Amino acid sequence: MTSKAVTSNTMLRWGLYAVLILFALFYLMPLFVMLTTSLKSLEEIRTGSLLSLPRELTFAPWAEAWSSACAGTQCQGLRPFFWNSVLMAVPAVAISTIVGALNGYVFAQWRFRGANLFFAAILFGCFIPFQVVLLPMAQMLGLMGIAGTIPGLIFVHVIYGIGFTTLFFRNYYVTIPQELVRAAKVDGAGFFRIFFAIFLPLSLPIITVSVIWQFTQIWNDFLFGVSFSGPGSQPVTVALNNIVNSTTGVKAYNVDMAAAIIAAAPTLLVYVIAGKYFIRGLTAGSVKG
Amino acid sequence: MEWLERNVPKLVLAPSFVAILVFVYGFIAWTAWISLTRSRLMPRYEFEGIGQYERLFAAPRWDVAMDNLFIFGGLFIVISMVIGLMLAIFLDQRIRAEGVLRTVYLYPMALSLIVTGTAWKWILNPGLGIQATVRSWGFENFTFDWLIRPEMAIYTIVLAAVWQASGFVMALFLAGLRSVDTEIIRAAQVDGIPTHRIYSAIIIPTMAPIFLSAFIVLAHLAIKAFDLVIALTNGGPGYATDLPATYMYAMAFSRGDLGQAAASAMVMMMVIFAIVVPYLYSELRPRHDK
Amino acid sequence: EPQAEVLHWWTSGGEARSVAVLQEQFAAEGGSWTDMPVAGGGGDAAMTALRARVLSGNAPTAVQLKGPAIQEWYEETGLADIGPVAEENGWEAVLPARIAEHMQCEGQWCAAPVNVHRVNWIWGNKQILDEHGIAMPTTWEEFNAAAETLKAAGVTPLAHGGQSWQDATVFETVVLGLGGPEFYQQALVDLDPQALNSDTMRQVFDQMRVIRGYVDDNFSGRDWNLATAMVMNGEAAFQIMGDWAKGEFLAADKQPGVDFVCAQTPGGGFLYNVDSFAFFNVDGDDRQQGQALLARLIMGEDFQKTFNLNKGSIPARTDVALDEFDDCARQSAEAMNAGAENGSLLPSYAHGMALRGAPAGAITDVVTAHFNSDMTSDEAVEQLANAVATAM
Amino acid sequence: MPILEIDHLQKAYGDTHILHDINISIEPGDFLVLVGPSGCGKSTLLNCIAGLEPITGGTIRIGGRDVTGVSPKDRDIAMVFQSYALYPTMSVARNITFGMQVRGVDKATQAAKLAEVARQLQIEPLLARKPGQLSGGQRQRVAMGRALVRDPKLFLFDEPLSNLDAKLRVSMRTEIKKLHQDLNASIVYVTHDQIEAMTLATKIVVMKGGVIQQIGTPAEIYNRPANMFVADFMGSPAMNLIPAQVRSEGDQTRIEIAREGAAPLVITDPVARQLPAEIVLGVRPEDIHEATGSAHLPGLAQGAGGEVMIEIVEPAGADTFAVTHLGGKPVTARLRAESAVRARAMFPLAFDLSKVSYFSPENGERLN
Amino acid sequence: MPILEIDHLQKAYGDTHILHDINISIEPGDFLVLVGPSGCGKSTLLNCIAGLEPITGGTIRIGGRDVTGVSPKDRDIAMVFQSYALYPTMSVARNITFGMQVRGVDKATQAAKLAEVARQLQIEPLLARKPGQLSGGQRQRVAMGRALVRDPKLFLFDEPLSNLDAKLRVSMRTEIKKLHQDLNASIVYVTHDQIEAMTLATKIVVMKGGVIQQIGTPAEIYNRPANMFVADFMGSPAMNLIPAQVRSEGDQTRIEIAREGAAPLVITDPVARQLPAEIVLGVRPEDIHEATGSAHLPGLAQGAGGEVMIEIVEPAGADTFAVTHLGGKPVTARLRAESAVRARAMFPLAFDLSKVSYFSPENGERLN
Ligand SMILES: Nc1ncnc2c1ncn2[C@@H]1O[C@H](COP(=O)(O)OP(=O)(O)OP(=O)(O)O)[C@@H](O)[C@H]1O
Ligand SMILES: Nc1ncnc2c1ncn2[C@@H]1O[C@H](COP(=O)(O)OP(=O)(O)OP(=O)(O)O)[C@@H](O)[C@H]1O
Ligand SMILES: [Mg+2]
Ligand SMILES: [Mg+2]
């Protein structure tokens, strides 16, 4: 990165910054609207302009969204559903990452006849539209006795996450020389030993990618959540949808927006904190330049 | 024991193999079968023939959905790539605060449209959002009312979709630019090639694989686009912004016309197949490295 | 202990409060209630969830279902027989025949109605109407004339939300108003090709085109309650909407006859939209007991009254005293009784009371496509006939 | 008893035959070097010996035991890889002891072995580091250490020096040689660098396209290459291969070499030989001498050279290389650093005929 | 007038000083080689000359014109990079002509130039191919072609051969040398390979840590290294640097070298010298001879050696290397291939004292 074809003309550079900042504003606009709205009183929302800053800050909508907003007959806010999402996302992310890592390890380092075809088959699975699988999946979950439960949701997310995690890990592990496996074989280590002692410790960047990707996908999922959850297992996105669509008298936009931000906070946080590694790992793992 | 040792790799893959076989290909087969029945509210398994496909292709709404897919998909892919590439090139000019800008461009990927849908609706709503705001600044004739014009509404979907995905494309391209050998750029500088030509004639052509990856990611997003439409227009005005995914969903779940939904799903699947298979082929073909 | 898990999408306005009433009563009788609200998309999301639940063999004990969908589900999966409760409580006697029909599957009781909404209401802002000297229109011509006056005065004549079901709502009131009850029955209930292809239908589309001109520019994607708010706040004069709109007026402390006026849509008749609960086959005594208890409570006079006071509709039972109800509700009850006699008590197609999903959806597609484009009436009629034919 | 015996080994990937009928046998203490151009199958052969690739035909015996089908860890071998293949997340110490740990060797023995090997290779100060913190040469030593602690019957090395820079390569080469002498170990060593092969081996196998070209001691290979491929491959600068015509004259052999812009150079080999009319004359750069000063050197017959036009002169420290054109080919001579040779001037050169090879231009085989 | 003059050049990245006070001047037709270990700043210096890196102090003059601050394309230079830096999506022909095209040279001239360069480099058959379809050597030629068409005042080469294998490196080296002779071009050439430096250069700059150690002709550098770093760096195997004690004895110099398990080796230099008591004796492997047969060689004084214990013998085709230990250091001698030397046996060696260097052990500077 020492020397790039860098534009040096000052006028041009100003223009450059102008464009970059303009786009930044464009990307920030919806978040800005949500954030400011969530901090305004209803009165101010009705009278003021959408894009104006709050005249008077209020955090009441946040409190309400978290613990007392109503969905249907319940007025518990997002809190219980938030924990549902956590209970669902954490194991689902962990399992799909582990399975993807093992799969990727096999595809990259233990090739066998037909492995490529199978890998292609798994990849194609990444592209299947989820609406298609709702009904047969419901049937299968029923058969397996985990319909309407958090384990059921975890199962679904794991199944449809494997494709991507396998892809990430496989593309990452192919860059590790095969000689490493060979050396370990000569040393007498077996399949799992090699994986746990040698590959897993090497995998931090790609684990980061896999975890971020899966976490965003699973946390943000609505379709599976609404279809496969029972009364006690609805994830936060479903609750958010219920709250936003529940209006008593006047629509509490500020509460809706606060709820939306709360529901999005974990993924947002993950991107802001780990986004750098995400880009880096993604180029290592999924894109070949 | 020996056998076990030799077959561990296959055994490790076995659960995934079964899962994919059943939960992807089994379900596709199931859908294919349903598309050949007269299933309505719930699946029925008596074979009927290709009537559902005939109905599908006769439905004006499906035509609109497919047309929209091509308009939306085409614009979304092209614009996202153009913006992504442009931002990547700009960011590549040793920009201060690059890290912050990158995060800002990328964060929409973290958000679901379930979350941002309302905000977008407001922003696009002429009476509340941009139009109203600009008018309140004194530009009385400013109009931005695509959301409510049937022939323009699909472009608002494009706008929101570009908002969500272009940052990601930017990241891909930026990584690509960063991986270009700096010696090539130096060679070009010594050769007297101006900066814009260095990009257009030398760097960008080397990034063909990244274009392909970006195209696939975007195409897949476009075909799957669902939340976006539901959150922004719910298919309206009329069904002007319907896409195959929303058509399928509507048929399956609000119309109780499962057979029809399955037929549309199969057509979608074929479109995906046509795009993804060449990609998979290029991805898995043995590479002859430089 | 009776158990009930209730899947519903009553999450808006007075609805949630109304369900809460039921929940309280259920609990008071010793039952345990599990709420399963799935909001959004006018019940689409709920229907998705329902299908998934049924397919996984884990159907909820009670589901908010209505119209022919009840019979359709019955055919697909069977529904629980609540005949004993119905007979014990004499439902047959207190329900209008037409509505009772909806609650029965092959002669057996399988659902319980909670209310009757009248769909063909037109709401007006009293102040605006008075200002311009306009009376509530009784024919579509009067409506058009009034709208022209308002438009000329710079008032938005009709508050409307750009969602296809709202378009369909207006459409069915126009069909009823211009064609009369018999035509409505033929066209939107029996799907008689002749009626669908008739001149009357052409006129209906003409009128739709006219109405389109009375709607403001920003209507796209607007929720119905926001449209109601426009009338409330004096931003528009009329709204054509079922009586749930009244809930919004009342919730905002507006008085009928003082702040707003209600009237049947031009042409009269009674388009009903009956909310009901259907009961799926479930295992376990406690859940079956829960179903019975729930059915009894729903049809109880107490609940019917409280619920409908909250929701703006009228009780399905004809024997509930209407003293506490407002004028509009009483007007509605009278019309229902009258309609039951003279055959103008008709199911609303727009709210899924008249048709199964596929043909209803096909019609809506044409209506909304016409309303939101510059399609000619002839084209619309032709498409309508085609769409209905293929959706059968 | 040979420590390693390879018998009619075949190796194919699907339809692609990589190794054809390989027969090799080495005695304990031998240092066998497999040498050949890139892609000729050296690594594949080594992997077959290690058991990392299944073979498609033939047998492999290590220490007399047939190991065909035996898994690598049970073959009593140790291997050093080109990229060293150090476990990147483990410390140097763990890299070395990992194999023992896997085999369940007790801690005390592990520590003792580690200490011994670390001393031997002088890597004691590095034991706590990660491979990423080591220089190329240090990594190489660690990889070697990992092999040494196994105390195997047979060491396998796959181009262990090719990732080092020229300087380091030379010094590591010497160390490996020393190690071999000290341990009296049996080694199979792969390289594509012929200098490495020459300096290290007690026995060299030259391969090309999966076929063995020649097996022999370094001196045999260098002095009597079996064919033109070996002649060209071994030695740097390469052996000069000069097309020439033969005129047998009684008990002498007259050889004519075309010269640009002058009469052919005629050389008289004092030995009578059965040669075809067209041959390729192979002569190493160091066997071409300055005719004046060195005419008295043994083997340098009279009439073994003449004046030629020198094109390029490359002084290289200890030697000076002079390039001319003979028989249409550039010919390099390695002269003393002090030589008075000048570019673009005539200069007298002579061939040491006692060391010349003759090849058939048709099949490239050696003729003398 | 010098073609390139570098005057007190400084280069720093922030606080890190990479190049310190560089002064170099070369004449037209010179072949200047910058040599030094990795990271010593060779590429940085070359990039500064090219204008690819801004300099922090001093001036650079090309053809008499001060080009400090002038952009690369206006410096009238051409550059060949280590990775060749060919434009990967363009054909070979376009790679070569692209620069001309951008400068607006007309088609006919472009074609003529291309043809000329292609002929010169013998790449005519490759013109339509993409770089990815070329071998390393071919790419190297194309990169050279791209430089040649520019017809610049000065060529800059950054390790152009380091990506090639040993064999190809040698032959490309010769080609570059030839090209230099044919074009009589002025060249600055970076390498870390001292053999390349020796064979190619008319003038060598040895660098270390951003500081110039010595500037001189190859012979000067090789025979009279300015300090121990240069002595050690240039030549392979490296110069033996042997700690020794000095006893001056009138018009002779007695030098004692510690020997393991035996009395010190005493060498008598027949010249009187001003040396400190402790020195480091530098002697190149080829200046250590078999004492018996070579005693009559010029410069090989009597008493210049003795019997030593030989530890390793490495036959390497044309030569045989013998390693012993003297003064606690391994010492390598380069003997004739036919030498009778044996490992683990005593053998008589003698130093050519006319070529020996003496260094100060304190600062490493040359003393004689
Ligand atoms: N898995 C494989 N499938 C098919 N062909 C292979 C496979 N592995 C190696 N080959 C081929 O076998 C041949 C020999 O490869 P090998 O690695 O043994 O060469 P090598 O002599 O070690 O070369 P290098 O010096 O470059 O390491 C090559 O042509 C290679 O392309
Ligand atoms: N952009 C930079 N910022 C800071 N230090 C740098 C930068 N570029 C190079 N350096 C440092 O400058 C020193 C000289 O680098 P340079 O590339 O010139 O070495 P070199 O002699 O060419 O080495 P090599 O033989 O490995 O190519 C190195 O220590 C390097 O780390
Ligand atoms: Mg190899
Ligand atoms: Mg460099």
From TrEMBL, chain A:
One Pfam family cited in the UniProt record for this chain: BPD_transp_1
Family recorded in the similarity comment: Belongs to the binding-protein-dependent transport system permease family.
Transmembrane domains' residue ranges: 12-33, 86-108, 115-135, 141-169, 190-213, 257-279
Protein name: Carbohydrate ABC transporter membrane protein 2, CUT1 family
Predominant subcellular localization, coarse grouping: membrane
Species this protein is from: Paracoccus denitrificans (strain Pd 1222)
Cellular location(s): Cell membrane
GO biological process: transmembrane transport
One term under GO cellular component: plasma membrane
Keywords for the protein's UniProt record, in alphabetical order: Membrane, Transmembrane, Transmembrane helix, Transport
Automatic annotation (TrEMBL), chain B:
Keyword Cytoplasm belongs to the record: no
UniProt family annotation: Belongs to the binding-protein-dependent transport system permease family.
Membrane topology category: Multi-pass membrane protein
Keyword vocabulary terms for this entry: Cell membrane, Membrane, Transmembrane, Transmembrane helix, Transport
One biological process term in Gene Ontology: transmembrane transport
Name assigned to this protein: Carbohydrate ABC transporter membrane protein 1, CUT1 family
Domain of life (superkingdom): Bacteria
GO cellular component, as recorded: plasma membrane
Residues in the signal sequence: none
Protein location: Cell membrane
Any one Pfam family match given in the protein's UniProt record, by short name: BPD_transp_1
Organism: Paracoccus denitrificans (strain Pd 1222)
Membrane-spanning residues: 12-36, 69-91, 103-123, 152-177, 198-223, 261-281
All copies of domain ABC transmembrane type-1, residue ranges: 66-281
Automatic annotation (TrEMBL), chains D, E:
Residue intervals of the ABC transporter domain: 4-234
Domain of life: Bacteria
SUPFAM superfamilies: MOP-like, P-loop containing nucleoside triphosphate hydrolases
One MF term in the entry's GO annotations: ATP binding
Keyword annotations from UniProtKB, A to Z: ATP-binding, Nucleotide-binding, Transport
SMART domains: AAA (SM00382)
InterPro entries: AAA+_ATPase (IPR003593), ABC_transporter-like_ATP-bd (IPR003439), ABC_transporter-like_CS (IPR017871), ABC_transpr_MalK-like (IPR015855), ABC_transpr_MalK/UgpC-like (IPR047641), Mo/tungstate-bd_C_term_dom (IPR008995), NA-bd_OB-fold (IPR012340), OB_MalK-like (IPR040582)
Annotated CDD domains: ABC_MalK_N
One Pfam family here: OB_MalK
Family affiliation: Belongs to the ABC transporter superfamily.
Alphabetized PANTHER family for the sequence: ABC TRANSPORTER ATP-BINDING PROTEIN, MALTODEXTRIN IMPORT ATP-BINDING PROTEIN MSMX
NCBIfam families for this protein: PRK11650.1
Name used for this protein in its record: ABC transporter ATP-binding protein
Species in which this protein is naturally found: Paracoccus simplex
